[in-house]
Amino acid sequence: MGLLQRLGKLVRANVNAAIAQAEDPEQALDQALMDMQDDLVQLRQAVAQAIATQKRTERQREAAARAAEDWYQRAQQLLNVGDEPGARSALSQCHGQQDAAAHLQEQWETQQDTIAQLRSTLRDLEAKLLETRTKRDLYVARARSAMATQRMHDTLNYLSRPNNPLERLESWTMELEARAQLSQTAGRDPLEQAFQTLESDQRLERDLEQLKARRPPELR
Q1: H, E, C per residue of the chain
Q2: Average pLDDT along the chain, 220 residues, taken 10 residues at a time
């Protein structure tokens, strides 16, 4: 297992442990997401640095290859004018540049593999971060809904108990209304109340006689 894969597993393990041990899972998950975001920033910087190093290696390889070609052309020119020792020395320089170019080519290929691995890990962590954020929002919404539902049921259960605040409020209201009714009638003159009762009875009798007078003759 590569170093970057172990790093990814370590990050996920740390996230799970932090959430399991925290009293507030939402806060712990938010902190873990922030840490993952910081890790992604560092990984992106590592990818950019690796690409820059590979480009520098490519430039060095190209320079060594050009130098090797130049030394080879020089050796050929020296040999043409009869300077065999000079041609040998130029070829030696050519071989040194060729070896350097070959070594730089191997470095470039190794760097290419490393960059590919870094990019793959970066994509995996980006996808994991996006997935974690999406699940975080979903689970937070579900948790808040569950807590609201639980509070509602707790409140309803509390209000359904005997002598609950709703019943006490009803009794208190009825008592206030009764007191108000008593206060309205407490100050009335008894004689006035007797006259009002008499008038009410007389009105009732008049209306009753009128109803009797309107009946058909056979029902009178």
Answers
A1: CCHHHHHHHHHHHHHHHHHHHCCCHHHHHHHHHHHHHHHHHHHHHHHHHHHHHHHHHHHHHHHHHHHHHHHHHHHHHHHHCCCHHHHHHHHHHHHHHHHHHHHHHHHHHHHHHHHHHHHHHHHHHHHHHHHHHHHHHHHHHHHHHHHHHHHHHHHHHHHCCCCCHHHHHHHHHHHHHHHHHHHHHHCCCHHHHHHHHHHHHHHHHHHHHHHHHCCCHHHC
A2: 46 52 73 88 92 96 96 94 93 95 96 94 90 88 86 81 76 81 63 67 73 68
